[in-house]
């Protein structure tokens, strides 16, 4: 468990008060993650991202073999 997730009872039992004995979080992780997801989805729809996806797949993925027909 991260120290920043400790409730007041746990903080007192460990003698570690967030914001006094231990620095308070600087970044709001949920808001940061929400913003990052939004930006990734926004960029993923651009023509440049689609072009890069095609280039990367062509370089790193083998084409599928067509099944033999009898």
Return the string of H and E elements.
Answer: HHH
Q: What is the rounded distance between the termini? A: 60 Å
- Morphology call: elongated
Number of strands: 0
How many domains? The number is 1
Which structural class should the secondary elements be placed in?
A: mainly alpha
Largest sheet: none
Give a quick rundown of the structure.
With 70 residues, the chain is an all-alpha fold. It is 51% helix and 0% strand.
Features of this protein?
single chain, 70 residues, mainly alpha
Protein architecture, described:
The chain has 70 residues and is mainly α. It has one domain. It has three helices and no strands. The protein has helices at 8-13, 29-44, 47-60. The chain is elongated, with a radius of gyration of 24 Å. The model has no long low-confidence stretch (mean pLDDT 88).
Summarize the topology.
Elements: H1 8-13, H2 29-44, H3 47-60
């Amino acid at each position: 468990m991260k120290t920043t997730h400790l409730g007041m009872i746990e903080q007192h039992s460990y003698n570690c008060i967030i914001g006094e004995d231990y620095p308070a979080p600087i970044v709001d992780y949920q808001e940061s993650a929400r913003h990052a997801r939004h930006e990734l989805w926004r960029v993923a729809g651009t023509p440049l991202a689609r072009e890069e996806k095609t280039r990367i797949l062509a370089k790193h993925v083998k084409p599928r073999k067509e099944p033999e027909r009898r």
